[in-house]
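The freezer alarm interrupted the setup, so I double-checked each line after restarting. Inputs confirmed:
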Amino acid sequence: MPTLAQPLSVPDAAHARHSIRAYSPEPIPQASIDTILRETSLAPSAFNLQPWRFVVVTDVAAKQRLAGAAYRQKQVTAAPVVFAIFSDMADTLEHLDQIMRPGASPEQVAGFRKMIAGAFASKTEAEREEWGHEQGFIALGYLLLTATAHGYATSPMSGFDEAAVKQVLELPASARVVALVAMGRAAEEGAPHHRHDLDRIVRKI
Ligand SMILES: Cc1cc2nc3c(=O)[nH]c(=O)nc-3n(C[C@H](O)[C@H](O)[C@H](O)COP(=O)(O)O)c2cc1C
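Predicted 3D structure, all chains:
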């Protein structure tokens, strides 16, 4: 498997990634987790709002509780690390100052705030939360690819009871859970890729 010093290229990682549900129990170095999250956080988002947040679950008892909220999917307890990706639009919109580029003038800050207020003014709270939830899937894609690039297998999951996950992880009421992602060293090969031909899903005009 590649090491952190020799990560796979994006095309190689795209080909190498498979959903893996059986893992070697060896713990993942904190430095690897931090690198993967740092690279995941480079994902783009509309207005650069970055509404995604992460919980890194390595505690065995916490993973057991999380598995209970995820229909007992075996990868939740088998993997040494499980990430929960969630969005939090209340936290995002309350801290717009944190996403201003360094050196922004007071006029630019005011203009940005006005633009964001305008963009979300017509949305209900539920629609705002849905917007943040959608953005979170961009981070999910980045996480899956960067983990693979660094030699780790993953299993993305949307099979969970969102309210139960929020309770187990003590997430704020404004959180929307995007996905759980088990990560570790693979102990199985995973299924070969089976995908549509491009002719089936692409139209060129
Ligand atoms: C958003 C998302 C949610 C998924 N949820 C689950 C899940 O809850 N349980 C599971 O075993 N696999 C889940 N999968 C894995 C898919 O079944 C898998 O990606 C698909 O069959 C293609 O296989 P591959 O990932 O090996 O290429 C999920 C994948 C994605 C992207």
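Quick read of the result. The chain has one domain: 10-201.
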